[in-house]
Structures are given as structure tokens and as C-alpha cells.
Protein: DMSO/TMAO reductase YedYZ molybdopterin-dependent catalytic subunit
Organism: Cellulomonas iranensis
Amino acid sequence: MTTPTVAAPRTRRPRTPDLLAGLAGLAAGAVTVGVGALVAIVTGPSTDPLVAVGAAFVDATPGWLKDAAVAAFGTADKLVLGVGEALVLAALAAVAGVAARRRWSVGAVLVVLLGGVAAFAASLRPDTGALAPAPAVVGTVAGLWTLRELLRRLPPAAPPTAAAPGPVADGPAPPGRRTFLRLTALAAAVGVVGAVVGRVAATGARGAQAARAALRLPSPARPAPSPPSGVQVAGVGPWATPPADFYRIDTALVVPQVDPATWRLRVHGLVEREVELTWDELLASDLVEAWVTLACVSNPVGGGLVGNQRWLGLPVRDVLARAVPTADADMVLSRSADGFTASTPLEALTDDRDALLAVGMDGAPLPPEHGFPVRMVVPGLYGYVSATKWVTELEVTRFDRVSAYWTQRGWSERGPVKTQSRIEVPRTGATVAAGDVVVAGTAWAQHRGVERVQVRVDDGAWQDADLAADGGVDSWRQWRWTWPDAAPGDHVLAVRAWDPDGPQTGVPADVVPDGAAGYDTLDVTVT
Ligand SMILES: Nc1nc2c(c(=O)[nH]1)N[C@H]1C(S)=C(S)[C@@H](COP(=O)(O)O)O[C@H]1N2
Ligand SMILES: [Mo]
């Protein structure tokens, strides 16, 4: 049975009720999110429905997409994810409102499904307990109730007439409609305030933060040598990266809050005896300090996902020596409070390099986003296979038994840092005056050492640059070269660094699966 439409006059169907129902859906969605965030103050930041769904999305993201996100948005990738998630949720909430107006059960099922996804995502987080689904469940109930109450107050549609189609266009809104809009705005406001208060309370001045503020780190048994004068070349970025400018890369949508008072490091697996280390025991041990340059495997040639700092911590080999790895072990899988894992060759943690369970950065406790209270730092390896932040567990194991977070997503299981160099002076696209031109930058070959840096102009021969003072084999090294008699015109400069094995490769490689390669180049105009 079909309705004959051919002969029907062109009357417009009243759209307004759908629009208003969509608004009601949006407001109810805001209430769901806000109430969820408030409940998450009690149950923990990673149980917040938005955070939990975002985290599940991050974990399900294939390596190439993560790589593309970091390439496109750098360290703003989390913000972009949050905004995208909010837009998708808003659209679904509006659809649920419209559906519920026509058939309550359809709208309600959609809302419950969304809530169910969030509850499930929260229960999957490794750092949440039995109450993990609570914020999503309570938020969903509050959202459903809001939607129902708002839809009950939906003003009746103005009857369409053929002569003047559509509802009242101008003049004051009828009282029913005004009340509805006010209530909808109120619900939306409650939701937004709840979300903001919840988020601030969950990540703000809580246990870990307060503990950090009250902390004083012990002095190292072996302090780092102060860097020799002359490590810094004028115009090049700071040799010691200020913590506030230090790149941040991790999968955590909210910074894990780990209270040192309850922190434990569990060392287990292929060991003769399991070891459990408390914060007090860690601080009472002989701590050492070392300058180490940390680099991200996602750093493109010439990029900024690399930084150098002075770390304070306990050598990992001291902890492993207490546990005594068995002869068949070849890897340590470190695990963080929020479930991230990294696979580090056992050898890199037991040889004489300064592989640390770090508690300090730049003479202060680790900033929360850089792993407070304890993280790993291993010279010579990319962060994704070594630098676990908020670390709570070391499982001594074998590469052929388990694989770590990024290895499961297509990245190499081992990640030695590739020798690299970049040009920082002059800036990209710069115009310089003909004559002698200073070219300068940074090079790194952690734990092997930069032995030489060379610069090439166009297709000319490689020229040796001057190396700045050496701050240690695990730190990057700055360099400077004077380009004699630069001639007017457009030129391309390239740089390459040498480690003890020879020059870095000039063959370009993508960041996947084990780090970018190729020469950093600079287009410059000489006038
Ligand atoms: N818990 C945790 N630790 C982590 C990561 C992570 O996602 N979670 N990312 C690693 C990666 S890929 C890098 S490059 C370094 C970055 O450390 P930073 O943010 O202190 O610079 O942390 C490593 N440690
Ligand atoms: Mo990384």
C-alpha cells in the first residue's frame, strides 16, 4: 500500500519539530558526557566515557594512521582526536533525538548502544577497576531521562497550510517553544559544566600532583658532568631542551595519575627471583645522573621529535641484577600504568650504558606528562622500544614470546636510533646575503657518538663542518660550517653526520617501520 503523492499539493512538511528534537538530542548528549565526567572524578580519569572511547580508538588505530596523525598534527594529535570525537558524538546525539521523537524505542536503543560502547571501552582500559563502566552507565541513564523530559515538552508543530507553508517565521516564539528552548539550553549547560568540572578535577590537583609538588629528590651518587662550555652554537636550538619544550608523544589521552606512595615496580618473568621495588626503596638506592638525547621513531628527517636532557635515576641493570635474568632471556617488556608496553633488548639494559629508571628531569621530579613518578630512558634506542613512562612492570622475557604495543601495530620489534643530522641555520626558505654564510645545526648518534658532520652545496663535494664541544656520547652534538663566498642564486644545502661506522645513509626512508632516513636539505636564496 502506497500513498498516492502525485496529486498532493506541494505543502511543506513542518521541519521544526525535527530540528527541536535534534537540539534535545544534543542537550541530552551533553548531559550524558557531563554526568559521565563527574562520575569519573570518583572512578578515575580513564573511565570518563569520552576518554575511554578515544583511548580504544587510539589502540585500534593502525600504525600508518598514527604515523599520518603525528605527521599532520604533531603533538596536537590528541586535540584533533578529541574534537573529531566530539563532532561525531554530537551528530549521533542529534540523530538519536530525531529518532526518539518519531519512535521513542528507536532513539533510546541508539543512546543505550552508544553508552554501551563507552562502558565497554572503559572496562577494557588496563588501569581501571570493576567500576569502570559506571560513568558511561550513569551518564546514559541521565541522558535518556533528559531526552525523554525534553521531548515531552516539545511544542506541537504549527499546522502547515498551502498558502503560508511552514511554522511561524517571525514574531516572538510561542510560550511552549520558549520553555522548551530554555530547558534544552539548561540541560546543555549542565552537561558542559559537568564535563569541564569533571575533567579539571580528574586531571588537576589530585594525589599524584600534590605528591609531586611536595617532593625533593635525593642528590645523585654520581652526578652528571656539567656540559663543557661550547656545546651551544649561536642560533641553533638549545643543547639542553627545556622540559616545557620537550616533545611529548604517547597514547595517553589523559595523563596517568600515579601516586608515588602506592607505586611499585614489579620485576618478574624469566628471573631467578621476583623483585618488587617501592618508591622509597628506589630513592634510597644509589642514583646516577646522565645526559641522554631521546628521539621518537616518528620524527621525520629534519623534525623536532627529539630532545636532550639530564635524567636522574637508578640504572636498570641494578634492578635486573637483583632479579637475575635466566640465560634464555633476551628482552625486557616494560609496562606502564596505562597498559603501554615496550620491548627492549636485555643487553641494552645490562651493558654499561646509562639505561635508567628515571625519577628526575632537569633537576626536578619528572613532569606528569613525561612519566611521573618513574619512566625508563635508554640511550641509543627510540622511545617506543625503551622509554616507557609511568612504568610499573618489567617482564623479563624473549622476543619470540611476546611483542610490544607498537610492534603489534606494524613497527619494528627493535628500534636502534638512526644516525641523523639537521640544518637549523639559516631557516627554511631564508634569503641570505652573498658572501660568507653561517650554516649550523644538530646531529645525533646516541651511544655511538657523532664523529663528523659534513655539508654539501648543490652537487658540490661534502665539506667538513666544525663540531661544537662534546657533551657525551649519548647526547646530540651541534655543528657549524661557514659557506665561503656563497654566490647569488637558489641553492640546496644538505647535511650528513658520521658515526664510528661511517656516514649516515642518504637513501630516504619513511618513519615506518624503524625510523626516517635520508639527508636533511635546505632551500636557500642568496642575493
Ligand atoms: N606509557 C607510555 N610511555 C611511552 C609512550 C606511550 O605511549 N606510553 N610513548 C613512547 C614514545 S613513542 C616516545 S618517543 C617517548 C616520548 O617521551 P616524551 O613524551 O617524554 O618525550 O615515550 C615513550 N614512552
Ligand atoms: Mo615515539
Residues 1-9, 161-169 have pLDDT under 50 and may be disordered. The first helix runs from residue 16 to 43. The chain is about 35% helix and 20% strand.
